Amino acid sequence: MDKGSIRKLFSNNCGIYLWTNKVNGNQYIGSSGKLGNRICNYLSSAYINNKAQCGDVIAKSINKYGINNFHLEVLVMGPSITREFISNNTPHIL
Question: Which CATH architecture has domain 3-89?
């Protein structure tokens, strides 16, 4: 699946993703309020290299083993919540 299809499929959704290393079985869990963007980021070598240098364990492992040695599972939680929604639905304490 290409980045455009991924962005379209998961755009405006939040969710949880699980990367499983096919070589050693290690699993890495992450979440995002902008799921399509986050998954596409992991398909970008520039993003992976940058995050790996910053110590991100998922990126370090993908950088070491290559994206083709990973299986991705995604759990879509629903639409992304906007700041406007949060500010309009935050309980007010008197």
Answer: 3-Layer(aba) Sandwich (3.40)
